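## retry 2 of 3
previous attempt timed out at serialization; input unchanged, resubmitting
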Amino acid sequence: MNEDYFSAPLPPRLLTTRTPSQLLSLRPSTLPSASGSTTPGLQSKATIAISLPEGVYAQQQDGVNSSGSGSVTTAPSFSDSTSIKSFAPTLSTCDNDVESMLGEILEESDATFSGPFVEEIVDETEDDDTASEDEEEGLSEEELLVRWRAKRKHFFILSAAGKPIYSRYGNESIISSYIGVIQAIISFFADSSDTLQSFESGTHRFAVTSSGPIYLVAISSIGETPAQLRSQLDALYTQVLSTLTLSQLNKVFSQRFNFDLRRLLGGTEVFLDGLVDSMTRGSPQVLLSALECVKIRKAHRERINSILLKARSPNILYGLIVADQRLVSVIRPKRHSLHPPDLQLLFSMLFNAATFRDGGEHWTPICMPKFNSKGFLHAYIHFFQPEVCVVLISADKDAFFEMREMAASVIAGLKSSNLISHIAAAVSRYKPIDIIPGTPIRHFLYKSRQNVQFTMPDWGKINRRRIMTLYHKLHAAVHTKHSHLKVCFCSRKQEEALAWVLPAFELYVVAAPGAKREAVMKGAQRVVQWVRAEEERLFVIGGATF
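## retry succeeded, writing output
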């Protein structure tokens, strides 16, 4: 399977034959407006397997698209830059009822569908939207409403009947009326046989996805494009399916259209909250649709693989060692592969919530939608170090003791080989200055498009959310539909930034303010050279199979 990030190219132009440095010297590239489109949310190829057997792929696709519910990963049929007015010809004759409802939600007197979107990246605090709800105890309803409206990003899940299913912020008394407004807006377009994808109101951007009997809505003033918000909604939908499976979701709503899904999701909100908080802070995994691995010596990774294979039990499907939300090692059957969204889902559950990080042993059912959305697998999870865990996945629900015995054998092998200390040491991230002494580069994201994996250095003292907002804008610039842009340079007051995209990789770089363009470009080239030299340490290539 090959990733397809771009539509069919237009006839080549002269500029595309020049080197990145020549392109930069010809004309500074500027970021597109926020209304520019981005790449459609296509499903990524397998992470660990270079190719996927046709039979397995067909089976997995049947699972994802079964029951006629559709998948939120389906690419939109129109450009993100297209105004929704062109899809709703009756909008101008409705006395702005929909716009009035939006203005009421956001308290914006100038709420319009075509209003300008704020392009500047504000200097904001890290925990602005992820503060503990304990701080809200004792506040009045009016104070709670003010705090709720001050959040710069919201996620909602509701049923087609308008029943609230999930909201990260606000209690039911606050969100119920707004959920009703959102459902009314979606129904307004549905009644015209239209599908609402996204729109803007003031400084807020709305993205909507419909998947069978439920709607997912993202509201953001941080700066993501509609396609980027929909990819985040896709991750949220995947989290819902991991608890229920697609078959169960369709079944309950086919029996009762107004079913309250919160009854089945009870107790799993902590995983949804953890995922939402991660995406609010900025998730490179979701932005790049890729997986991050621990940088460790190839010889050490191969020894870990050997220990996993030696301890393998008959009912094992996947065996993983995971550290700090990054993959260390994996074993899998030759005819099965792992998909980035499924692994991102698993890692988010492990590390964005404290449920499994108590040092105990856990046996839990989990649906991996890209593998098979119709049924459950069962995962044995054990954190044998504060940031390191073993995950053994089986299709047999009664295989707990078998997986437990295998895990004990794996941990014993890691201890006797002194590999646990090597894993613990490898968890610490490298710094840009360790790669290129004296470089102005502060941070970067490098994605290997063939392996569907990425690497990045330590965040250091930089503002993560502001930098991630900049990465979102760079990503949008080079993935605009029908764009041939390969190099994009952006100069801002707080930092200089560069995006560089080739068939083999994507590189996004942030440098110190005032850094010269040539120095940033040379630093980016040094990063690419370093990654190529360290590729077998940075990425899991192929993985171990049985």
